[in-house]
Amino acid sequence: MARPLKIRGINYEEPLGKVLPRILKTRFTEMMAYENDMLKNKDTESLHNMRVSARRVQAVLKIFRACYPQELYNINYRKLKSLLHALGEVRQLDVFTGTVKEYASALKGNEKRAFNILLVKQNKIRNQKRKLLTERLKKLNNKGFREKFAELYI
Amino acid sequence: MPNYTSKVPKKIYPVNPQQSLKENIAAVLPLMYDDFISLAGSVLSSPNPKNLIHRMRINGKPLRYAMEIAEDGFGKEFKNCFNEVKKMLELMGSIHDCDVNISELEIFLKEIRTDNNKDNVEEKISTTEIEGFINMLKGKRKELFGNFSDEINKWRKENFKERLIKSMNN
User: Fold this and answer.
1) Out of A56, A110, A117, whose CB is closest to B65?
2) What does the alpha-carbon distance between residue B13 and residue A67 come to, in Å, rounded to a whole number?
């Protein structure tokens, strides 16, 4: 799991109202920084890191909900939740596939047959879920997700 | 895609923008801990608490991430508490992975058996290895759950909540 970015210049004695924008901006920027690598689909780590980062953003919103205007909060929270869901669907498959591959690697010849069938099936489902994730991200970006979310910390 | 129109958190923690970050964290963390630990009794006493442990884990994540933000704001004992929360959630994550993997494999096993029972099947696929894998995962899950149970009881015995509160008062 990727370590979180240090929140620069954080002063624990400062009023929450002053510090919170910096916390949220750091967490959100960190999450979106994984987007390009995640879309390239070279490995499973960037997706995992983006999902963990998204959970960190979600946590900030959950904990400090009282500090945000309700409508702006609701709009952005729901969009974040939809992204988290799409990331989670793919991540769950990656974890399962990884476990299956590790177990099957110790098997020989015909013992692997059922696992090979399973992995082909899982790969097909993964491709479908990835497509949904990519579409979700595209839709969010087209509707100004970053700009709208930034209203929470500007 | 699922409808997210009703999926905002119901819980609102009593934070105050005028008070310091440190004061706010000290005020909400015990409440967040309560939200997390409140399901522990049900998880430990239920015969097959898959969904309960998952819900408990979901409740624990904001606690973990809140402590992460606060990590450098308090002393050594706070860091110790944070590490224990992280370890607990990682353990619950491993249990959840077992639950998901077992569930997926059981669905696949059922499909294989159904296909094997069809009249026109050329060559039946052996299910022995899948069954063995499921059994291995169930054993692993039992062990992990035992560890989780031990950790929760340890927290209860040493009053973890009190430790957490004290760690933020120094």
Assistant:
1) A56
2) 10
